[in-house]
Amino acid sequence: MKFIIFNGSPAGRNSNTNVIGQAFLEGAAQAGAVTENVFLAEKKIVFCRGCFSCWFKTPGKCVMRDDMTELIQKYSEADVVCFATPVFTWDMTANLKAFVDRLAPLKSPLIVQKQEDFDLADATEKQQKFVVISNCGFPGNHNFDTLKTVMAPCSPVLELYRNCGKLLKSKDAAVQAVVKHYLDAVKQAGYEMAMRGDVSAETRESLNMELMSVQEYVQYLHMG
Ligand SMILES: Cc1cc2nc3c(=O)[nH]c(=O)nc-3n(C[C@H](O)[C@H](O)[C@H](O)COP(=O)(O)O)c2cc1C
Fold first, then answer.
1. What is the CATH number of the domain that holds 51?
2. What's the mean pLDDT when you consider all of the chain?
3. pTM, full prediction
4. Does the pLDDT of residue 224 top 70, yes or no?
5. Ligand 1 test: best mutation among 136, 147, 150, most atoms within 8 Å of CB?
6. In ligand 1, which atom is closest to the CA atom of 7?
């Protein structure tokens, strides 16, 4: 089983998002999964032109030549695809959006009905499972509302939304102890996903643990 993260933080491997991503992949690897962590900020990905050549002229192939050729290959080989991003202005980062738009060659122009809605049919047979990993700077969970809505059409099997993201790389020993407890839950989630394709209710509950009260967190941010 192959797990891949596409991390859309401009901070790449130094991002808070990657603190969560690494723990998730570590857990998956412990269960025997092959893992890969891709930092989109290090890749050349130009914006989709919306020319639809990948559907009508050269099905499955984009007219542009950049790192997406390699990334679509990696995406297609994976069993579990994780879209990882910090919240930037209530949504995913521009890096991740540029990447997701360029996945158009994996869709076909055929419209299919899904429950009460309509979607494009997949051009490939392989169906990936989706995981969403995100962190945000503010304490409230409502900061993820837009992202949750945007990600819903890919029916993620697991969503890790971590508020108080500034704590993830804290140098304060007491904070680090709480963060470690949280990251242990993230590792466990990765482990369970790789072992049985799902995550237990108990682990899901732990993923929502409070790292710090709102008042303390606001004070922590003000201290710099
Ligand atoms: C341009 C910009 C927009 C942001 N918008 C939000 C926001 O809407 N809500 C929020 O809680 N945090 C917001 N943040 C804070 C980031 O989510 C936070 O700093 C996060 O920890 C960065 O994660 P990273 O290190 O993985 O990039 C924003 C940060 C930037 C730079």
1. 3.40.50.360
2. 95
3. 0.95
4. no
5. 136
6. 26
So what's the pLDDT on residue 136?
98
Total number of domains in the chain:
1
Indicate whether 211 pLDDT > 70.
yes
The pLDDT assigned to 107 comes to 87
Mutate to test the pocket of ligand 1, among 6, 88, 96, 146 (most ligand atoms within 8 A of CB): 88
CA of 86 to the centre of ligand 1 (A): 6
CA dihedral 72, 78, 82, 83 (to 10 degrees): 10
Kindly give the interhelix angle for 16-30 and 173-196, rounded to the nearest 10 degrees.
Answer: 40
For 75, the domain range is: 2-222
pLDDT digits (tens, 9 = 90+) for 93-151: 999 999 999 999 998 888 888 777 887 878 788 889 999 999 999 998 899 999 999 99
